Predict the 3D structure of the following.
Amino acid sequence: MNSPRPRVSPKGRWIPFWVWPVLALFAIGTVWLRLSVVGTTYDIDQTNRMIQNARKEQEQWELKVARLRSPAHLEELARKKCHLLPPRSDQIVRLQADKNAEKK
């Protein structure tokens, strides 16, 4: 009449249906988070490389400006392009500082 209930062994326990979608969401979330971290790390590395390149370029420009402003370079340009010579002693004019101008 009443049949005995089948015994369920601990190995044969069933997992509720709602657990599978939750596990799938956790797995998808983990993959999405990892991809996001990798993408952000790549962006940060690329930005660091750009900053490093900009610093190197800035140093090169500073060296070029220093070379162009150097007295030796300016003297060379004056001789070659403008055909200027060092002044003779009669061409040198010495200026006196005006003491009244400093008080104004």
